[in-house]
Design brief:
Blueprint (H helix, E strand, L loop, with lengths): L19 E5 L1 H18 L4 E2 L1 H4 L6 H11 L2 E6 L7 H20 L4 E2 L2 E3 L3 H4 L4 H16 L6 H15 L4 E3 L5
Parallel strand pairs: 1-2, 1-3, 3-4, 3-5, 5-6
Helix pairs in contact: 3-4, 4-7
Amino acid sequence: MANSKTRTSTNNPLGGEYQVFLSFRGPDTRRGITNSLYHALVDAGIHVFMDDEELRPGERISGNLLLAIDDSKLYIPIFSQTYASSHWCLRELAKMVENSSKSKEEGNEKVILPIFYDVKPADVKLKTPLYRDAILNLEQRMEDQKKKFSSKDIETWRQALNEVDDTKGWQLKKYPG
């Protein structure tokens, strides 16, 4: 990765193109692996988007997250125990998968490097109850919350989970601290 001097300017109100976008479930990993990874990358001169570091009070979260994903070259989803229970995490993942697929066609490849933190790839691929049940719970919530997201969204999230699991990633165990 190049240092921040090679970034190109965009109309992004967050200040330009990111090199890395971290996607994670805050309660599971924010104060541990995500924070450590973020600081290691920043210390190496890499421009990283991490939601609480880059969003300012009063800014719209959804639009800015999507812009940051579009502007990033490398995506690191940190799959954890409750990642799939967050519709925001799944929206981010679906956008990363979409951008990665599009970028291959355009010759400007964006790469997804998954981390499986205290979960197995089989969980992410919906072969175990962990993520499968989380998706089913989101479907139930969709009906209860007057369609905050659609059935199409849920199917897109399932496809994104299956697709990203086909990418070689790192499996890390959570050690008692």
